[in-house]
Write a structure and sequence with these properties.
This protein is of the alpha+beta class. Helices cover 33% and strands 28% of the residues. The protein has a 4-stranded antiparallel β-sheet, covered by helices on one side. It is flat and about 40 Å long.
Length: 72
């Protein structure tokens, strides 16, 4: 898979989400980028728009839960 974001950060203070497109087909994925851990695929979509919409809804919930776990 290759990043579709030209300026995706390489370091993170906390969890972050990026969208990647599979090079072999029309599959878009949302990946969690966490400091000190390997990237983790969270969601697959059939379009970049679907992936972005997931980040705006369920992705924000996921990030908030992850932040709470890190801070506890």
């Amino acid at each position: 898979m290759s990043d579709i974001l030209d300026n995706a950060p390489t370091t993170h203070e906390g969890p972050g989400l990026i969208i990647r497109k599979a090079s072999h087909g029309l599959v878009w994925s949302v990946w969690a980028m966490l400091e000190g851990t390997p990237s983790e695929e969270l969601f697959e979509a059939s379009s970049e728009e679907d992936a972005s919409n997931w980040i705006k809804t369920d992705g924000q919930t996921w990030l908030e839960e992850r932040r709470q776990k890190r801070n506890s």
